[in-house]
Amino acid sequence: MWFVGLGVLLIAMKLGDVSVVAEWNWWMVLAPFGVAVLWWIYADSSGLTKRREMEKLENKKLERRRKNMAALGTGRDNRKTADAIARAREASAARIEAERSQKRVHNEKIVRDSVFDSRTGVPLDEPRETSKPQG
Prior knowledge:
The protein is mainly α.
């Protein structure tokens, strides 16, 4: 695009008899248009034009998504709020897990301290009933 602009400027200077350009040959004045054509051929064949077009579309898509997320209140603008909520949930979960852990330790201690006869399920300090064979 710069070459086309330069070519237009040189043509205007040649036709207006401005400066040194008025004395140049026409092929020198029109040379930027030839360079522009060569550049476009190179850009199209190398995929440069397509890559730039895809980058523009991707940037538009990201910007549109960012605006939509901000409008919904879930974008990066509310990142601090989301982080605070996540930290509060983690703290609550840690507190509940600590309570459960203490309860487990307490229950394990009760089980260890109790003395049961594994065959009858009756504590050893209580008298057991003995069954007499019927006969």
